[in-house]
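ok so i was messing around last nite and threw this chain in just to see what happens. nothing serious, just curious
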Amino acid sequence: MSSPHDENRREFLQTGLAAATAAVALSSVATGEDASSKGLATRPLGKTGVDVSLLCLGGWHVGDVKDQGEAIKIMHTALDEGMTFFDNCWDYHDGGSEEIMGKALAADGGKWRKKCFLMTKVCARDAKGVRSQIEDSLRRLKTDVIDLMQMHEINFDNDPDWVQEQGGLAELLKIQKEGKVRFVGFTGHKSPHIHLKMMPVHAWQTVQCPINVCDHFYRSFAQQVIPAAEKIGACVIGMKSLGGGAKGAGKIPTAKVATAEECIRFALSQPIASLVTGIDSMEVLKQNIKIGREYKPYQGAELEALLAKVKPQAGDGRHERFKSTIDFEGPYHRKQHGFEA
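result:
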């Protein structure tokens, strides 16, 4: 008769082997073009027909750089080095992130915008708010079209109902038909079950969610949302690979659960289109570019060793509190749902 310990060990190994199988499959079909000394590998953005860099520059962190000149230099360097997928959101730094990114992309006659696949997000659920916020984003980003617009922070159980009942989704699709938005998706970090509720609402092209080594053991988006997204023809964009946190440090590396390189490699080893990474300095940009260029998927014994190292601190969610508390919802969305901002 096997002991509980034996059963747990068997379950862990099966989980690790399943992830290893996924990593092997990914290495053969989804790594995209080879990275060169001046570039990053690309991956298909689902069924859009567009390829994007496997790493994406996060809008919140670049908007947190105090020196605007340095922030612009970081973005221009990222584009030159092959990180051509940029993330942003209407409410990051009260629009400040979009403002500074717009300046960077419009510089030198707009040559930088031509290099960039540009994503931002809309926070409103009602038609009037969606229209107003998207017009704000177009103006601040100094562009006529957003490549990918995502409905942001689908973190509350009633958000999938609200985007339909209040008319926000219908207005977003109308704006898409007007040619101001190319592709549409949604984001969220709270719970896989909310993502699963949101998926049938529309034929989304992208779904953004947390993908990290701790997620593997706790309310896992990777294990629940990725397969569901594949079934509806959507692709997953990963985020919070370091567990979130300001100043680019990341909660998981800070707690010495795993290094930044291990975290990013693990996330990229999942079948995702791209990984949004927080970059608030040239040093972090160079670090992430290096990790992206040298990336090889985790598999086999190496993967099992990483999961074994992480598991003791992963199962209770201590490094992913954005899944279990309201502390990580943005002020706009707290107020939207009647909570104190």
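not much to say yet. Confidence is low (pLDDT under 50) at residues 1-36.
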